[in-house]
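Retro notes - structure team

What went well: the batch runner handled both jobs without manual restarts.
What didn't: labels got mixed up in the shared folder, which is why I'm recording both outputs here explicitly, each with its sequence directly above its tokens.

Job 1
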Amino acid sequence: METFVEDFSAAVDYLGTRRYVARDRIGVIGVCASGGFSLSAAQIDPRLKAVATVSMYDMGRAYRDGQGYAPVPSEKNSVEERKRALAEAAEQRWAEFDSGEVRYGGGSVVPLKPSQQAAADEFAAYYATPRGQHPRSHPLTLTSLGAIANFMPLAQIELTAPRPLLFIAGEKAHSRYYSEDAYAKAPEPRELHIVPGAGHVDLYDKVDLIPWGKLTSFFDKHL
């Protein structure tokens, strides 16, 4: 997770050394998991002057809750379920040290709860089809579970002030609560924009649903 966050600061390092870039006018758009990564980066790198997230995912919370709907408490991962998964990931570290063979995915298969299945189905419709699949893509490694579980991108969100934040989410997105909760915790200036009729992955590539005007006006105003 730290590497993904660092990527944003590394991009600013590069952009800020270009003669044609104004260092005090660098903003960022983070989509899905990168929404959480960009928020985390902005908390520790004040060179990011304005941040917009689209279909934001809090990857740490997604793991801890079980990638389900937060308003369904009974469908969250229990502490024991999380401990079992982390123990399996920790044991895999020994295995990889001995063999050098990397294991991908989230560990032992467990039955999906209804809200988890809803999220899995939406992602499958994108990542498991030519719409979003890439031949060089692969899941995260099993041993990365510890870093994911420990990722909390809203821990210091107050440090983003007075830089502006824009949260964009689909009305029907299973992930909508991430943006709403981040907005509730964020300092001013902040804005939450809900796209009518849109799901989570719709805002990846459905150009008729992506709110281009909102994004353009946000960065025109603040950069």
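Job 2
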Amino acid sequence: MPAQGKHRRTKSVSLSRGIAAVTTGGAVLALPVLGATNASAAPAHSVAAEKAVAPVSVTAQVNSVTKAAPAKHSVVAGETLSKIAREYSVSGGWKKLYEGNRKAIGENPNLIHPGIKLTIGAKAAAPSDAKAGKAAKAAAPSAGRAATAERADRSERTAAAPVAQAAPIAAAPATYSNDLDGWIKESLAIMAERGIPGSYEGIHRNIIRESSGNPNAINNWDSNAVKGTPSKGLLQVIDPTFQAYHVPGTSTDSYDPVANITAACNYAADRYGSIDNVFGAY
């Protein structure tokens, strides 16, 4: 019995040890197995994930490259940097577009000429010196406001030009001498404005015959004088005739030399066609 019990204990111990060994061994053995399983499973999962993700990443990169690729635009008449920036949805607007094309545009972003090739999406070129940076800042006002100022300035120059040119055209008022020559010339100028015919020679000839050039001459002996309407002035005009043919703008005094000449010539034009056709009493 003791031997049997010892056997049993030994077996039991052996079994326990075996279990422990198995357990321990199992743990030792299981770990590599489990580890191998997990290691093999993990890479499989990673490869699958990479295969699943890789196409998306590549596609995204391709799309990114495609979107980022600079586009070319040829400026046409009437376009502005603001308009082009809106058309291409440029991030940063016209300022960003100008920064990337300043070399082609020049120092003034408000002046872009048809035919200029713009690169949409180009990176801004670093300014060569401090002056270039200041020039870019100075050009910062909006294109619309600068264009408005330019149009206003051009309108002012256009409006001012005719005034400057018109100044020399203004002529000084004509002056006439206070003598027979001056009276005849002034009368001819007024007659020309009124469309009354007559020449210097025709007026002068009739004056010399009628009054000898005396503006205060009066005839108190002829039939007109008998009727109470004596002939007066350089061309001996009676008052009723003077009043009927008086030229507006001249004196109402029949002795006034210019008023007398113009009224007499107006009467002669109505009755004889012109003072030039009068060679005697009229």
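One thing worth noting from job 2: Residues 187 and 258 are 5 Å apart (CA to CA).
We'll revisit the folder naming next retro.
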